[in-house]
Amino acid sequence: QSVLTQPPSVSGAPGQRVTFSCTGSSSNIGAGYDVHWYQQLPETAPKLLMYGNNNRPSGVPDRFSGSKSGTSASLSITGLQADDEADYYCQSYDSSLNGYVFGTGTKVTVL
Amino acid sequence: QVQLQESGPGLVKPSETLSLACTVSGGSISSSDNYWGWIRQPPGKGLEWIGSIYYSGTTYENPSLKSRLIISVETSKNQFSLKLNSVTAADTAVYYCARQREFRGARAGTYYCDSWGQGTLVTVSS
């Protein structure tokens, strides 16, 4: 059972903005550990989308942005496009578990 | 550009040992900047971190799997491996290997996976 909770799904029309959360606790995000995000297109391996809360790897468009506050983090996608349809996972470190944890995952649907 | 490739049997019998290797190309597994990790994803479910290893052999394991898990590294082959014993159907998953890099933020030790293998499906069934 994951210690990072995400909404199961979000949806939006092309061009719209969607934002979804990754909620943790005082032993992970709330303890100051950074959050990273991955995008998983259907039937493919996850791909790094955001590292260190709000840093985009080379090649990731600036339509994607991240933030962290308190015990939560969030990922926003602006100008939603059809090829943004994917599962998105957050990841951090948990000091109680002494290991890395992933979020439950959010499926983004473009209407 | 580093690439990772998982290899190993796609079918394992219950109670036996699951063994996978990850071969790294385009970069050295002995780089001091990286850990190397295993992550799995049961069919239709989310990601689960299994464990990580440094080139020196230092390991970190998911507490829920630690008693059944061995992660090792062979620097001469630029390869690291996973052995999970006493498997059950609950261990059926796509297994990924990944390179983990440290983000030096407010708290030390937060690693992220910047390169992933394509994944390999391991089914536990008799």
Please give the share of residues in helix of chain A: under 10%
The proportion of residues in beta strands of chain A is 35-45%
Structural class of chain A: mainly beta
Instruction: Provide the structure class of chain B.
Output: mainly beta
The biggest sheet of chain B, with number of strands, parallel, antiparallel or mixed sense and barrel status, is:
7 strands, mixed
Describe this protein's structure.
The complex is a heterodimer of chains A (111) and B (126). Chain A has 111 residues and is mainly β. Chain A has no helices and 9 strands. In chain A, strands 1, 3, 4, 7, 8 and 9 form a 6-stranded mixed sheet that branches. In chain A, strands 2-6-5 form a 3-stranded antiparallel sheet, with no helix packed on it. In chain A, strand 5 and strand 6 form a beta hairpin. Chain A is globular. Helices cover 0% and strands 53% of the residues of chain B. Chain B contains no helices and 11 strands. Chain B is mainly β and 126 residues long. In chain B, strand 5 and strand 6 form a beta hairpin. The chains are: A mainly beta (111), B mainly beta (126). The A-B interface holds A 2, 31-34, 36, 38, 44-48, 51-53, 55, 57, 89, 91-93, 97-105 and B 37, 39, 46-49, 51-52, 60-63, 96, 101, 103, 105-107, 109-119.
Précis, in short:
Chain A is built from no helices and nine strands.
Secondary-structure blueprint:
The complex is a heterodimer of chains A (111) and B (126).
Chain A: E1 9-12, E2 18-23, E3 36-40, E4 47-50, E5 64-69, E6 72-77, E7 86-94, E8 99-102, E9 106-110
Parallel strand pairs in A: 1-9
Antiparallel strand pairs in A: 2-6, 3-4, 3-7, 5-6, 7-8, 7-9
Chain B: E1 3-7, E2 11-12, E3 18-25, E4 34-41, E5 48-53, E6 59-61, E7 69-74, E8 79-84, E9 93-103, E10 110-116, E11 120-124
Parallel strand pairs in B: 2-11
Antiparallel strand pairs in B: 1-3, 3-8, 4-5, 4-9, 5-6, 7-8, 9-10, 9-11
